[in-house]
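Handoff note, outgoing to incoming analyst
You'll be picking up this chain. Sequence as last confirmed:
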Amino acid sequence: NMVAEENAPLPSTPASSLRTPVAVDLDLLKKITHGAIKIAEMDGGYVFSRMTEWQGKGCLNTSQDYFYKPFSTAGIRLEFVTDAQSFRIKGEFRCGASRTYSYLDVKVNGVIVQHDGTENYIENPDFSMTVNLDGKKNKVAVYFPNMVQFALTELEFEKASVIEPVKKDLTMVCWGDSITHGYDAIYPSLSYANQLADGLNL
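Most recent structure output, in case you need it:
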């Protein structure tokens, strides 16, 4: 989770939003993000950090193979409840580890409904995905790529009167090897760390 005050209840979106798309700003983004300790605007997108500056420097100083790993969005997700008819997410795949595949998963009420991305983020850095919903209150989770940095450039909800963060009572830290990182889990939601977090509702 982000820091505690950023997980405070979010007021429902004004009714006027039923007529116009709702664009997400940084304040709302922090409330619906889990697994990141910092979000910052950089080069036209929101960049998510899962390590402290001290931890990141430790990886950067280890070897060339570890250089880009601190920038990946492994274990980071957006979670919210919304009555939107749909939402659109756009972004860029940036620096990555030793794999070039890069995918996002979307779960609605615990079921994977969308899996989209690219086998080679270097050749296809731009990402755009629209997720259709039913206009009822649904719990949505968007899992970011394990192997690369995903910079969010747009998150917009269509016909939404409610966008609420999903509160978590506890925070889990996974410390381990490449499998913990999520290597070769092309579906990021199926990395063992994400499955463990889902199973324990963390």
